[in-house]
Each structure stands twice: as C-alpha cells, then as structure tokens.
Design a protein that fits this description.
Order of helices and strands: HH
Number of domains: 1
Largest sheet: none
Helix content: over 70%
Structural class: mainly alpha
Distance between the termini: 45 Å
Number of strands: 0
C-alpha cells in the first residue's frame, strides 16, 4: 500500500470516528434536554398546585403545630400523592430515554434562513 492510500484510509477512519462521536454527543444532548424539560413539566405542576391549594388544604408552609386535624390528614395524603406523581414521572422520563436509545439521532445545529424564504 502506498503512502497516498494510507493517508486516504487514515482520513476515512478519522471521519468515521468523528461521525460516531457526533451521533453519540447528539443523543446525549437530546436525552439530557428532554429529561430536564420533562421533569420540569410535572415539578412545576406540583408547585402550582401547592401554591394555589396548599395553604388552605394542608397548611402548606405552616409549622406542624399550627395545623388543624383536617390539614394534618390532608398533608399526609398530599405527600403520598406528590410522591406518586414524582415516581411515575421519573419512571416515564427513564422510559423516554430508553426509547431514544433505540434511535439514531443527529443534532444538525441551529439554523437561520436570512434570505426570507427567497431562493438565490
């Protein structure tokens, strides 16, 4: 094999390695972003529910000694519901990441069309 062929083979191997890394990095990026956005959905929903109904129903933010009997019971029930929501949401988040692993995903970058849709 001559030097020119060796250089060609080396360059092809480098391209293949780079493309594999781009695919892996793209997958990791998408999985991280998706997981963060997915978790944000149910965490903010819980926070909104706590802000709107928490004080009245289970004394959200109040010390334990200032709660009524009903608020104490509701607080226990809310903690169980909250835990269930978080556990099920996290399970779905992990399932989403596992599903993504079955696909080949390539991030092509952010693109902007400065021609206004007109062809050159």
């Amino acid at each position: 094999m001559n030097k020119e062929q060796e250089l060609h083979n080396l360059r092809n191997a480098q391209k293949e390695t780079f493309q594999t890394k781009v695919l892996q990095d793209s997958m990791t990026r998408l999985q991280d972003l998706s997981t963060k956005k997915f978790k944000t959905c149910f965490v903010y929903a819980i926070a909104e529910f706590e802000n709107v109904f928490g004080l009245e129903l289970w004394g959200h933010g109040l010390p334990e000694d200032q709660l009524t009997v009903l608020q104490k019971a509701n607080r226990d029930r809310w903690q169980q519901v909250r835990t269930n929501i978080l556990n099920k949401g996290n399970t779905q988040s992990r399932a989403m990441v596992a599903e993504m692993d079955l696909h080949e995903i390539k991030f092509v970058g952010y693109q902007m069309d400065l021609t206004g849709g007109r062809e050159k």
